[in-house]
Amino acid sequence: MKTTKTLLAAIALGTSLVLGGTAAVAAGKQHNAEDINFSFEGVFGHFDRAQLQRGYLVYKEVCSACHAMKQVYYRNLGEPGGPELSEAEVKAVAAEATVMDGPDLDGEMFERPGLPADKFVSPFPNKQAAMSANGGAYPVDLSLITKKREGFHFPWYVSPFIKLVKGNGGPEYVRAVLMGYEEAPAEAAKDAPEGKHYNPYFAAGPWISMAAPLSEDAVEYADGTKASVEQMSTDVAAFLTWAGEPKMEQRKSMGFQVVLYLALLSLLLFLTKKRVWGREPH
Amino acid sequence: MSGHSTYNPTNPVMKWVDDRLPLPRLMYDSFVSYPVPRNLNYWYTFGGILMIMMVSQIITGIVLVMHYTPHVDMAFDSVEHIRRNVNYGNVLQKWHAVGASFFFIAVYIHIARGMYYGSYKAPREILWMLGVAIFLVMMATGFMGYVLPWGQMSFWGAKVITNLFSAVPFFGEAIVTWLWGGFSVDNATLQRFFSLHYLLPFVLVGVVILHVWALHVTGQGNPTGVEVKSGQDTLAFTPFATVKDAFALSVFFIVFTAFVFFAPDYLGHSINYEEANPLVTPEHIVPEWYYLPFYAILRAVPDKLLGVVAMFGSIMVWFVLPWLDTSKVRSAAYRPIFKQLFWLLMIDFFILGIVGANPPEGWWITVGQIATVYYFAHFLILLPLVGLLETPKPLPSSISDAVLAKNTNKQPAAQPAE
After folding, report:
1. Which residues of B touch A79 (CB under 8 A)?
2. Residues with Cβ < 8 Å from B293, sequence gap 6 or more?
3. Which of A47, A228, B191, B240 is close enough to B235 for a disulfide, judged by CB 3.0 to 4.6 Å?
4. Which residues of B387-416 are buried (b: 16+ CB within 10 A; e: fewer)?
5. How far is CA A100 from the centre of its chain?
6. Are residues A161 and A218 both part of a single domain?
7. Is residue A80 part of a domain?
8. Interface contact flag, A270 B247, Cβ < 8 Å
9. Is residue A164 in some structural domain?
10. Which residues of B lie closer than 8 Å to A, measured between beta carbons?
11. Which one, of B322, B299, B302, B323, lies nearest residue B311 by Cα?
């Protein structure tokens, strides 16, 4: 008993020490992203519609110039659990894009305005074109960016516990990278690669090909929110999290019902079991 | 207890069927009147839980296949398609993926219970060996299933594991080419893995039927390890075991569904959300968590071939466990030294899992090697020795005696009147 308590205390202490200082991260390694309390976290998490709409604006006006998002459809923007644009807005957004379709009856490819049923049109026709236009670096597809990148890196003995509570920190990673451009320390700057930028939050960093994409008031929010770099980074991180799993809200609400149902079922089964076994010594 | 059947159908339709094909009788004898020891604890409910998990995996798998495309250019996107566009596909896919993990959680508990209570000893050797075969089929199925989403870890996991066969002397390279269906992990590999991932679960069902058959011939073991001696020792499967198994299953499913709905990615790898890319090797290639202890054993041995032999040997040794354990007493409850060795083995296995998850560098290598040596020493040296040297505690004369003794010890004033 006593040993268990001591062990638990030691784990708690270790956890708080590690959480307390990102300084624990060794120099040259990816910096831990700042933990943000997003509205979509936790068992009852929901996306903030206004935030998703702001995030979509940032994606559309800034990110989508280079980054594709091939898993997402325009219609998703109007579906429940997302930015929930109106039907007319979704149609308008889709129509702004030009889709290469065909071949038509004459065997010719043709261009047409996008429809809600189309996937997000990629900025480049193929990977080679994207790399060629971006100095040899491929702008990663953003459909699953918050799922495939991790913002939190902790030592092995606490990592499983922290990640169970906080997740992998994917949304935080996106936000941290967008805000994380800084002057390279003198030592690192000595062998700075040509045309690259210093960003210690970048997973394959600290040198990143993408220049700082956001600047103060890069977009103009319709709801009057001040478009600071931090605000835009946070908003687009939320939007990309939604894009990574547009049915997250449905999943969580269904999960709540399922677990509640099973809890009640378990209680009833327990009482039945007690009743049935009560007559028999076991 | 292949005793005389007590089935006496009152329903004329059932009687008609039973006279021609005694399927109703088989069901009745197996799941209603089947006598189970009255002292089974909750560790004995995992057999039933595993049965349900297997059915759950097969049903979700069959539906997933209706929407999945086994092609290197389309597999990754088709899984995303399931998550995004198929009705309830998001839940279905997560249920199957997390279900694999919970299938393994249940099977590890089930195996550990067997080791603790000596369930492998005579006359249950074949029952136990069929269980080991089931575990091997599960491992193969799980490995191939993880390749299907065609993410980075799918691809590189497949590459690393299939490459193990290149350690075979003389024919290594040829075997690997044969496994791949080409000169690299490519479309042919994905398609054969898909084919086998669909086939093996039905092989699994076949072996499980044999496992349950063997169980019903020998009867269940129990925490005392004393065989059933009279009707006093047992209770009817229904309602007693049925309701207890159902309760345990329901609680297990609370935990399972909590992961499915609230932490579906926790047990996987983030990097598998990146589509497979043969040109970019991930920083750390690790298998799914349930293979980690064996992965650690593989890497503990400096020689590739011997590493592979050690990895497979670490499971193969379970096949001969009934003969390595020299003790006549089954249950660890009456074997004080063995009981401690059992828990040391659990800790050792857990350490191997942690070692498997970490890069093979620095002191991880040493820890992995010590844990590997201990793992084999447990089975090959300690187990045979302790059976000869240990003095077991006195066994109860029967299950019902043990139950009565327990009840009177715990609550001297308790009245058996409820």
Report:
1. none
2. B314, B349, B350, B352, B353, B356
3. B240
4. beebebeebbebbbbbbeeeeeeeeeeeee
5. 29
6. yes
7. no
8. yes
9. yes
10. 38-39, 77, 80, 83-84, 90-91, 94, 235, 239-240, 243-244, 246-247, 250-251, 253-254, 257-258, 260-266, 270-274, 354, 357-358, 400, 403-404, 407, 416, 418
11. B299
Per-residue pLDDT for B86 more than 50?
yes
Residue with the two structure tokens 């007693």: B240
Closest-CA residue to B99 (of B320, B268, B317):
B268
Q: Which residues of A touch B (CB under 8 A)?
A: 43, 71, 76, 143-144, 147-150, 156, 163-164, 167-168, 170, 244-247, 250-252, 254-256, 258-259, 262-263, 265-266, 269-270, 272-273, 276-282
**Positive or negative torsion for Cα A53, A54, A56, A57:** positive
Question: Long-range contacts made by residues A197-202, C-beta under 8 angstroms, separation at least 24?
Answer: A200/A30, A200/A31, A201/A30, A201/A31, A201/A33, A201/A151, A201/A173, A201/A176, A201/A177, A202/A30, A202/A177
Q: What is the pLDDT of residue A193?
A: 87
Q: Considering only alpha carbons, which residue of chain A is nearest residue B77? A: A71
Asked if the domains B27-280 and B286-399 are classified in one and the same CATH topology, the answer is no
**Domain coordinates of chain B in residue numbers?**
27-280, 286-399
Question: What one-character-per-residue DSSP string does A131-181 give?
Answer: HHHTTT------TTHHHH--S----TTTHHHHHHHH---HHHHHHHHHH--
pLDDT confidence bin for A16, thresholds 50/70/90 = very low
CB nearest A266 (choices: B77, B250, B262): B250
- Distance, in Å, from the CA atom of B325 to the CA atom of B329, rounded to the nearest integer, reads 10
* Residues A278, A219 share a domain: no
Distance CA B113, CA B43 (A): 6
CA distance A147 to chain B (A): 6
Residues A259 and A184 placed together within one structural domain of the fold: no
Widest distance between CA atoms in chain B: 75
For residue A271, what are the domain limits? 255-282
For residue A98, what is the enclosing H or E element? strand A98-101
The chain A residue lying nearest B152, using CA atoms, is A148
Measured between beta carbons, which residues in chain B are less than 8 angstroms from residue A282?
A: 38-39, 235, 403
Q: What tokens does A40 get?
A: 């979509």
A37 and A163 both lie in a single domain: yes
What domain count does chain A have? Answer: 2
B296 touches B372 (CB < 8 A): yes
If one counts every other C-beta atom within 10 angstroms of the C-beta of residue A36, the result is: 16
* B86 vs A contacts (CB less than 8 Å): none
Whether A240 and A265 share a structural domain:
no
Whether the predicted pLDDT of A21 surpasses 60: no
Check: CB of residue A171 under 8 Å from CB of residue A36: yes
Is A12 within a domain? Answer: no
ipTM: 0.90
Architecture category of domain B27-280 in CATH:
Up-down Bundle (1.20)
- Look at residue B38 in the predicted model and tell me its pLDDT: 93
A132 lies in the same domain as A166: yes
Nearest Cβ partner of A272 from B91, B243, B265? B243
Which among A43, A156, A280 has CB closest to B235? A280
**A261 and A227 within one domain:** no
Q: Do A229 and A159 have their domain in common?
A: yes
For position A194, which CATH number holds? Answer: 1.10.760.10
Of the candidate ranges A7-11, A185-189, B131-135, B396-400, the one whose mean pLDDT is the lowest: A7-11
| Residues of A in Cβ contact (< 8 Å) with B240 | 276-277, 280
Q: Tell me the per-residue pLDDT of A113-143, one tens digit each, with 9 for 90 and over.
A: 999 999 999 999 999 999 999 988 999 999 9
In a domain, A263, yes or no: yes
